[in-house]
Amino acid sequence: MPIVQHAPRNAKSSEESIIFCVALFTPARITKHLQTASTLTGDFPPLFSSFHLYFEDVEIGQEWLSVGRTVTQADIVNFAGISGDFNPIHMDHVYAKSTPFRQPIAHGLLVFTMASGLGLNCPPMRTLAFLRVGEWLMSEPVYIGDTLRLKAQVVDKTVRGRGRRGEIKWKRIVLNQDDRIVQQGEIVTIVEGRGAKVLMSLPCKNGSPEPVTVPEVAPKAS
Fold this sequence. Notes:
Distance between the termini: 39 Å
Structural class: alpha+beta
């Protein structure tokens, strides 16, 4: 059984420490533990704000369109350094002139990664895990200077963990500045649900785990 411990740096006694015993090691419970620790000690900021949506807040068929992001030479160079993919079709301007593209193109996985980033607030979800990628098509090249946007649609929803979290299947379409589809496919994520309110906690002076209801964390006034 994994143990999650937290004590404030300025704790003067064991009574000021918080010790949690996690009965089930799930993303939803880890999230709530950290939010509770933040509320009681102020050491950690909340993982999500009131602006982020729960599993229950979105419906099948809903769509969102992200803001744009322009692909730069620096994006391609940095991704090549991280991934190790220095294929000349991405890096060599002279060689690229001899290809059907006539200029360097962005890595397909770089575009996929950018789409993931654009999806962070499209819509802003309380995402706990990225589970899998379904069929994903890379249909058009992306060049330096192209501006990408992401269209996201809820395809399917499945309740998990008795409402503490849920599985969402998304249709994602990556568009360029001409509204041409450059990539598209499906992904599945795990999102926090409104049922994630009960934790298994172990206070310092208690010998066995027992459920404790955690109140909603009210946003702090700025």
